[in-house]
Design brief:
This protein is an alpha+beta fold. About 25% of the residues lie in helices and about 15% in strands. The chain is flat and about 65 Å long.
Length: about 200
Amino acid sequence: MSVQPFHRYASDDEQDTGIRMPTVSLEATVHNLTISELMGRLERFSTGSEGPEMFPWATRFAMGYPLPSWQRPLVWTEDQKVRFIHSLWSGVDVGTYMVNDVYEFVGLGESGTCYRKFSEVLLDGQQRLTALEDYLYNRFAVPDSQGVLRFWKDLPRIERRRFSSQHFAKAAVGSWDERFLRGAYDLRAFGGTPHTEAQRALPEA
């Protein structure tokens, strides 16, 4: 098969210099964190120090992160959740989840203190973080190296530590502008096409 020569700036003098492609509209900072950071957040959320009462405007959460009203419903099947957790155990790069990494306290009075709307809201990653939360709460089991289904509660401490040290990076933006946050969600949610089972490179075991 012959390969056509490629030059990145070939014939650029002949092109319309008035053409403009989309510019960067989502400048997110990526933090190379581990699952341990998410576990710590879930611990604080579930034990009350940063519980749901701190986010009265949110009706749903994932690993302790509040979700905005425009997030789609949960759609992953249990099989998809198992596959995702297996990817985490295997050290696969599972991309980043994205949060609005700003917060502000409001209601400093007799009604108590809570977070301002959109504080630390989860913009992308609901399905993955919910799968992780369900796994940690023993709502489904994942096959071990021998194919035996194991719940999180069954695992020895050394395996739990290994899992918590796996990388799961966080992308962060910072804004109180709802239109910007909705746009960020749309950019992340509609930017790709999932593979089909027919496109699998290896047959399932």
